[in-house]
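Appendix B, example 12.
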Amino acid sequence: MLIDTYGRVATDLRVSLTDRCNLRCSYCMPEEGLQWLTKPELLSDDEIVRLIRVAVTDLGITEVRFTGGEPLLRPGLVGIVQRCAELEPRPKMSLTTNGIGLRRTASALKAAGLDRVNVSLDTLRPEVFKTLTRRDRHHDVLDGLLAAQEAGLTPVKVNTVLMPGLNADEAPELLAWAIDHGYELRFIEQMPLDAQHGWKRDGMITAGDILTSLRTRFGLMPEDEGARGSAPAERWIVDGGPHRVGVIGSVTRPFCAACDRTRLTADGQVRTCLFAQEETDLRGALRSGALDEEIARIWKAAMWGKKAGSGLDDPSFLQPARPMSAIGG
């Protein structure tokens, strides 16, 4: 097992397939983009599948989430999903995406074995979307959401970040829309993972702010504490049910004590936390001929050293050098 000194066991693997993205969200990267990893730096499809196989068959991983950057930009994505679906035991597999490419890929991903998707959508207003992402692709995201639902990649979850002065007033409208369309909405506090290092604690839209806004239109009742488990989202029953909304308060309501995640970057580094300052190299071991047993040993040693928390509540907190797009969500 991937266990740490606090007794937490990692069963959820987040795999970044690329650091590239076809949007330029203001809370993630600058308008001109970033310097992307070169092809030799990236793990190959075979290397990704091998590391996932080690994680699933030797280390107790039961869920795999493919992330980016934008994972739909990875040419071999469908093949990677298909090969991972053939593993024994078969892991649950999901994908976090901006949704732009889902219209053309949703059916193929479902056929390959993908179980469901999380789609990022921060606004229902095309003009705000264009301001936030610096791209005019709002209609493509809506089309992608519908395609995922039609393909059976359900439940389709929608991830939303609220930003002051842009979409901070949209929480009730977004929840009503999600309920009408059968999507599960998750609000996520803006995190200090932007490439520009412009995040400021003062002025951010907090989980408390989001709940206050939602309650102007909906009745919210907290779900049973035991139902949350290690999930990052606090879930609330909307107007007596059956609909629910989630709020992920990484900054103001951290959930580190129940964390069950381990992360693999697109260039083969293990990260024990989104906000970790340290990484452990698996790519070097792979390319130097290490056996699966050695890779598993390195991975277990990395997780044993996982810290108790993210440190976000510490005044001395330092933002990681890597932005979200290079870590994987």
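The chain has a mean pLDDT of 91. The first helix runs from residue 45 to 58.
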